[in-house]
Amino acid sequence: MTVTRWVITAAVCACFADAVTAGQAQSADEKQIRALIAAEETGKRPARTADRIFWSGAYRRPTVGDERGEETPGEGQLANRIPKSETSKTTIRRIEIAKSNDFAYEFSDAVLSFDLKNGQRMSVPRSVLRVWKKENGEWKEAAVFTRGHDTSPPAAR
């Protein structure tokens, strides 16, 4: 099992082992996290822990903290994207707040869109698992794992 799969499996198991029962009314913490996600769609990035882990498949390996990852070689239209033209629309599926109220797990679907140098706009549907950590009363991203969906026809894969 790869490190990435192990980390995702561990996060999901921890979520089920320590989450508040689903179906309850939204807590103040969940409302705060939802507000951070909504603000992110307007261009305001949420605060991050110093050791935040990010993995999207666009990089050769997960990145930690503020390090810049080495991108995988561009394939097709991804190599022709215009930097900083990205927008994202997130559909939250579930947020689980740990009983300790200092960690939360977000399960979402999202669509990442960006402009291409040829004038077209490309959209990539993806799934997101995000771990939130509360530090000094503020929710921060601790880990983000995202993976684009393969939308090519089955014969083309």
Structure, explained:
- The protein is α+β, with helices and mostly antiparallel strands and 157 residues long.
- The protein has a single domain, classed as Nuclear Transport Factor 2, Chain: A.
- It contains two helices and six strands, in the order H-H-E-E-E-E-E-E.
- The chain has helices spanning 3-18, 28-40, and strands at residues 48-55, 63-64, 87-97, 103-115, 121-135, 138-148.
- The chain has a six-stranded mixed β-sheet.
- A hairpin with a 2-residue loop joins strand 5 (121-135) and strand 6.
- It is globular and about 50 Å long.
- The relative contact order is 0.20.
Label this structure with key terms:
Nuclear Transport Factor 2, Chain: A, 18% helix, 157 residues, alpha+beta, 38% strand, six-stranded mixed sheet, 2 helices
